[in-house]
Amino acid sequence: MKILITSASIGEGHDLPARVLTEEIRAERPDAEVQTVDTIAIFGPLLRRIIMDSSRFHSRLGSRIFDLLHRLITDVAPTRWLTGKGGELLGRRRIRRAVEKARPDVIVSTYPGATEILGRLRQRGDLAVPVVSAITDLAALRYWAHPGVDLHLITHPESAAEVAEIAPHSETVCVRGLTDARFYAPRDRENARRGLGLPPNGPVVLVSGGGWAIGDLEGAAEEALGLPDATVVCLCGRNEGLRAQLVTAFRDVPRVRIEGFTDRMPDWFAAADLLIHSSAGLTVLEALMSGCSVVSYGWGFGHVRVNNEAFARHHLAEVAPSRAELSGAIARALAKRPDYGDYFARLPSAASAVLGLADRERRDGRRARQQAGANRDGD
Predict the structure, then answer these.
(1) What are the pLDDT digits (tens) for 35-69?
(2) Which residues lie closer than 8 Å to 245 by C-beta, 6 or more apart?
(3) Which residue of 4, 53, 268, 332 has the smallest Cβ count within 10 Å?
């Protein structure tokens, strides 16, 4: 069995699910061949430049431009059609070449830019291989979901309604297995704090802006320090410039720790009481799975703006549109710690859903070949 995963090297939001899914598929089906391709790389230098430049939103002006573009390509029908068609024209040949080279039984996309193209090819009959979309955002799913996709895997059960609106005839399954498996096992808070060198008492607040550390981390940290005896940990991801800036800003504040990229997020969430996060995505899900309260603050543009609306609507996280509203959001979030028990651990695995689709496809292919042979014999 061959599985092709299309990911994208834009932070960890697409590559992490691809890595975790690969490991789970190999664990459940050791003889399976899993190949992951970086969609950004195979798109070529022109499209890569457009995508990567549109992902640089550290400035206020850049953020507002990004938000305007997001509204145009998701909310306005003509520009939405033009964007989808343009992406298909620029990327379909390269995507098809990657598929032809891998000859997979199933394609799984963890990147909406690839999902849109694959869905269009599949819907038109130009792609014979079934397509799976692995969705890790809560909302703003216009490019994560597509009517041509055979199976949508969602990480938030609340996402099902939006997927059904976009792709009413596609199968949708809420799954585990698109983030670190350590999040599904209970972890002891005291041991986590001890292992990370955190105080055993007092609130611990994590401030994060995702892999690129976008948003107002400094302002979030300053507001969190208003909590008595709080320890504030700024997670700067791969943004070394911001890390240096925060080290300077808080060098005389012993209650603030500045950290770079880390692979110990399960420990951090087990130790923490609150996450203040700016970029939605898997990080919020991981915090909720760990029983850590969440405030979304610091960068409410584009898809994050839409996710913030969904966080509030589904009561998953507090949302602070401005710094003036942040202290109130912090107090409300700390008053209601999430407790999902073993809900997420009991969900079907993403790997089993993908493998099940591949098995069905292989069985259907065998039946079709057998039927074709019988028809020829009858003639």
Answers:
(1) 999 998 887 665 556 555 555 555 677 777 778 88
(2) 218
(3) 53
User: What is the extent of the structural domain holding 89?
Assistant: 2-178+349-378
- Residue range 262-294, pLDDT digits in tens: 999 999 999 999 999 999 889 999 999 999 999
Number of domains, the chain: 2
* pLDDT tops 80 at residue 199: yes
Rounded to whole angstroms, the Cα distance separating 302 from 97 reads: 32
Mean pLDDT of 355-373: 75
| 108 and 189 together in one domain | no
Terminal-residue alpha carbon distance, the chain: 33
159 contact partners, CB below 8 Å, separation of at least 6: 135, 137, 138, 139, 141, 174
Residue 60 inside a domain? The answer is yes
Does 326 share its domain with 367? no
Question: Where do we find the tokens 């808080």?
Answer: 250
Is 70 or 183 the better-scoring residue by pLDDT?
Answer: 183
Whether this model's pTM surpasses 0.85:
yes
Query: Please, are residues 170 and 144 in contact by the beta-carbon 8 Å criterion?
Result: no
Residue 228 CB coordination number (10 Å): 7
For the purposes of burial, counting CB atoms within 10 Å of the CB of 345, is it exposed (0-12), middle (13-18) or buried (19 or more)?
middle
